[in-house]
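Pinned message: reference record for Nicotinamide riboside transporter PnuC
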Amino acid sequence: MSWLELIAAGLGIVAVWLTVRQNPWCWPIGLLMVLLYAWLFYDWRLYSNLLLQLLFAGSQLYGWWQWTRGGEQHDGRKVSRLSLASLATGLSMGALGAWLLGYLMANHTDASAPWLDAALTSFSLVAQLWMAQKRLQCWALWVVVDLCYVAFFVHSQLYLTAGLYAAFTALAISGWLSWRRDPALRYAP
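Predicted structure (tokens):
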């Protein structure tokens, strides 16, 4: 455990807590967190997770824009539910991404857990996209992904990061409950 990991984990907790509260400051704080984790994953030689953090950096900027200027009136997104078709499309894209990335990692790298790492990476990107668009279902997907990450990081002996993902799981449950009560909740077009 390093001070950098401790700071990144703390920023992660703050960022997700602000997300639950629908505070747009979650995005710049999240951006700082993912950049710190990118550096840490580089040092730890977890290159798929490094790639994920770099993709998350771009999604932090996208989410910040969506929450402050997105939506029909360009006044920020409101919480909405995915249609069944959109939900199925997103999960199918996650599965396809997991298969493609897993195949590449299994056949062209020395990755220690190519298929699991690829699946978690792919479905994290789907959840992150849904979060940026304020889709309620992002939280259910985050619960599943975060629980898998807890086990993955415990196995990798990255205990502080495993603890962070356990906290993310609790916050995702809180996010689901909070966003479900949002008076603006509706189905997305």
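Pinned by admin. Summary line: Residues 90 and 162 are 26 Å apart (CA to CA).
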